[in-house]
Amino acid sequence: MSSAYKSLIASDTKIRVSSALDKAVGKKHLTDGNPETCWTSQQGLPQFIQLVFSEPVLPQRIALTFQGGFVGIQCAVVVAVSPEEPVWTTWTHIHPEDVNRRQIFELPGEGGDIQCMRLVFERSSDFFGRVTIYELAVEGFL
User: Fold this and answer.
1) What one-character-per-residue DSSP string does 123-138 give?
2) What does the pLDDT look like over 43-88, one tens digit per residue?
3) Which terminus of the chain has a lower count of CB atoms within 10 Å, N or C?
């Protein structure tokens, strides 16, 4: 990891998810830094994770650690400049592998400052469309 990048997810970043299997696997576990906890969606696609940053940011990469067998294998990264009446634009697509290890996805350089980001899992390696994530990190510039 480049030391020039900073974690963009702070304590005041608002996180919303499309669903959670139950409270034991809720959204708070996406960024708690504990490798034993996770977020698991309910079944059905698409599933999403939405981040609203407290100030405009310039994301450079996303890091995700999935549970193998429950991987969002096709993910649209959509962004909006402002949280007030956001206009969502597809920035890029990422294609995580169906593995348990941490995966890092560099984002294309043509993006500008944004305040909202949504990861939309369009396909899952799970037959029922569930997604399980142990770690979510977004790094870039403030």
Assistant:
1) E-SSTT---EEEEEEE
2) 999 999 999 999 999 999 999 999 999 999 999 999 999 999 999 9
3) N
The answer to whether the CB of 116 falls within 8 A of the CB of 83 is yes
Contact 43, 70 (CB under 8 A): no
E runs forming strands in 20-88: 39-40, 47-66, 74-80
End-to-end CA distance of the chain: 17
Determine the Cα–Cα distance for residues 133 and 39; give it in Å rounded to an integer: 5
What is the torsion angle, in degrees rounded to the nearest 10, for the CA atoms of residue 96, residue 77, residue 137 and residue 16? Answer: -120
Residues ≥6 apart with Cβ < 8 Å to 127: none
The confidence score (pLDDT) of residue 93 equals 98
Say if CB 24 and CB 48 are below 8 A apart.
no
| Model pLDDT for residues 85-135, shown as the tens digit of each residue | 999 999 999 999 999 999 999 999 866 799 999 999 999 999 999 999 999
